Structures are given as structure tokens and as C-alpha cells.
Amino acid sequence: MKLTVIGAGVSGQGLALLAHQLGNEVFVSEQKTIAPEVKEIFAQNHIDYEEGHSEKVFTGTDGILISSGIPPQSKILQEAQSRGVKMTGELDFVLPHIRSEKLVCVTGSNGKSTVTSLIGHILTRAGLKAGTGGNLGTASAKFTQEDFDAVVLELSSFQLARAEHNLGADVAIITNLAPDHLDWHGSYEAYVEAKSRVLSLRSSDGWGIIQDRDAETLNPSGKIITLSWSRNPEHEFSGHIFMSESEALLTLDGRTESIFRYSDTTLIGSHNLENVAMSLCAVRLLGVSGDVKTLLEGFRPLPHRCEDAGTLDGVQYIDDSKGTNVAASITAMKSIPGRKIIILGGQGKGEDYAPLAEAVKEECEYAMLIGEEAGKIHDALKHSGFGEERIYFVPDMEGAVNTAQKLARPGMVVLLSPACTSWDMYKSYKARGEHFCRIVREKISAQWK
């Protein structure tokens, strides 16, 4: 067969190489420039490609494989649909070929990268050969090349929106739900429908783990475990994780036992305690057990996800640059104790900033605003009653940190959690977070000179 792959990013590269290894003639069409090293990989595997979509996309093709980030409203996909060309998403093409005894699929609006990485870490610490990837950075197609005891995949709403066939997951997790990527999906309802597919398309005897507060929205069936900070969940399913004051307790099959004590982890914030609880519950459902401290040992917070950047003059600076939506920033603010100065702004996703403003009013002394969305966030803050004298427009990250340093008092937290993407000022959230951390650490170093 001749297959066309749309997109030459991480996902597209994986699709192209797997399709080639399966004996297909492969052509890759990328709208933007393809990196030289990727061109070299394609050349080594006799895969033809183009930069800029053309009629070659459709010439003699038997079908199109869509890499994960291509939006449904893109002209090339609309043209393919009008021509009646068969289109297949990444998950439907790749997952049947993954070589693993067990499969865990993780999605959610926030926390999915931490949960995916942590489950992989725990499984490895338990002595299993575990592969960890998907939307996390390693293409899912990589796990078709060798055998694994378990594979843990982070799945985005983009990937799930195109999934039609059974994913085969033994455990499917939705860490939480909140509006995100509405510009891509078109509505919150469509976004939720995409996320929910990780549950509806799991293995027939597979487990699902969700937040109790999301149960009504998801309306799941089968074996479901919910998580809440209440001993008595609002919804009755197969099991429940209760986040008590000092430990997480799992009730299953009429028995209640401790999953872990909060002192067992160094992760910052109550949301990360939920991530640890879901991760440990998932591995238990896979039949893996062991000393919790040993299993968690060595795991570090993911870069730019509530990561400690350092303490200066009694003020802690926290890098949550990966907080690129309203829900993520609200969670960070509410999960981290103490009064805060928050750095907000960047390129928006079409979200409503009213809930963000209410959280800022409750949790923060001051707000530093940067980037394209600064004006809109300012208006939401002002409308919420957050005082004008507590809002600072700053030109860049240096200005944000410098102003925050002048205003902060010992015991406070300066939190970078922008609620926006970075693309108006930086090439990625990683570059934004690294810049923030570099500024803070240079200030700390200067104190000792």
C-alpha cells in the first residue's frame, strides 16, 4: 500500500517509520520546514517527503495517517475529506502493533505527564521493563520495536479525538477535566468527548481511574475507581481513593488500605499528591507491589511543573511554566501553601479568565502580567475586585521577577504559572521556564559574591 503521513513532528516520524517497516510505500507531507536530521532519517529509510502540502499528498495514496497535532480544520484534512480519502489517526494505526504485556493510558487536562512518568518510574523500580512515552515526547510507535512488560502512554485530546478502535488499555486514567484546547476542539463538550474515549475504548476488563467530581460529566461504565478529598464519594463505583489529611487510602473489594503517606514524596502541592495516589493505584491494579518509599525513590518533579527554582531572601520561587491553561494555574495556586505573587500571561487559547481571576484574588497578593493576554487578564482581575494597585504590567520575564522580588516578603511564594502558552515570547514553555529559573538562580548566586 501507499500511505501518506501528514506532519513530520515526533508523532509523524514515528508513523512514517512504522508504516515503512510494515512494508508500505510512505510519503510524508509537512506544512513547515523539516529538520535536517529528520530528512536524513527519512532518506535512510527511503521515505519521500515534501515541505508544504501539495497534490502529492493524494497522488496514488491508499490512505492518510494523521500525526497528533494536526487540527481537524486544517485545509489539507478538509480536502482529504472532500475527496473521500481514508484517514487514520495515530492511535488506531500504532496501538495494535505495540509489544507489551500491559498497557496503561493516561490523559487529563493537567497532571498527565507527571502521572505517566511516575507510573513508568514505579514499574521500573519494581524490576519491570517499562516503556514511557506517547504525547510525553517518545512517539508511541517506538514501542512496536521490542517487547515490554508494560508500556505507559500519555495521550492528548488530539490523539484521542481520532481514536475509533479499542485501545486495549489495562488501566485508563483521566487525571482531571477542565477547559483546554477549545480552539482546536471547537467546544468544551467536544474536548470532554475526546478525553472520555480513553475510558470507553479501554480493554473490556480494564480499570478506569478518575476524579469523583468528574464522574457525572464522564458517565463511565465498568470497573471504575474515583478519587476525592472526601471519605464519602458522591458517586458509587468499584472503588475509591480517599485523600485524608496525612495519607491516601484505597477502598476496593470491601477493604481499605493505605496507598502512601504524604511524607513519602517530595513533590510540591496537593495536586501532586493526587498524581502520586493515582499512579500507585494504577500499578496495584497491574499486580505490582512493594515498599512505597523504595518505589517512589529517585523520582523528581518534571521540569517546569511546580519545580522549585530556589529561595531568595526567604521567598520561594516556583517554576510552573507548563501551566499553560487556566485550570493548571488555578490548581497550582490552590495547591501550594502561602501567599503568592503570580506571573501570568502569554499567548491565549480562547479561555475565560474569570475563574483564574477569582483564584488570584483568593491566593495572591500581587499579579505580574506579561505577553499578548496581559490586557485580557487585567480586565478579568479588575472585574473580580482584585485591586488595580496589585496588578503590574511588565515587559518581560526579567521585569516580572525584578518587580516580584521588590514586593515579596519572607514566607511568600513567587509563582510562574502563566495560564497561557509561551509562543508569543518563547519557542516553548520549556524555554520560558528555563529563563525564569536562570534569572532566579543568577540573583541567588549574586548574593554570595
Walk me through the topology.
Elements: E1 2-6, H1 10-21, E2 25-30, H2 36-44, E3 48-51, E4 63-66, H3 75-83, E5 87-89, H4 90-94, E6 100-107, H5 112-125, E7 130-134, E8 148-154, H6 157-161, E9 171-174, H7 182-185, H8 188-200, E10 207-211, H9 215-218, E11 223-228, E12 239-243, E13 247-252, E14 255-261, H10 270-285, H11 292-296, E15 307-312, E16 315-319, H12 326-335, E17 340-344, H13 354-363, E18 364-369, H14 374-384, E19 391-393, H15 397-407, E20 413-416, H16 429-447
Parallel strand pairs: 1-2, 1-4, 2-3, 4-5, 6-8, 6-9, 7-8, 9-10, 10-11, 11-12, 16-20, 17-18, 17-20, 18-19
Antiparallel strand pairs: 12-13, 13-14, 15-16
What value does the Rg take, in angstroms? 23 Å
Largest sheet: 9 strands, mixed
| Structure classification | alpha/beta
Distance between the termini: 66 Å
Helix percentage range: 25-40%
Q: Quick check: average pLDDT?
A: 94
Give the strand tally: 20
Low-pLDDT regions: none
- Put simply, the count of helices is 16
Strand content: 15-25%
- Which word captures the global form? globular
> How would you write the strand order of the largest sheet?
7-8-6-9-10-11-12-13-14
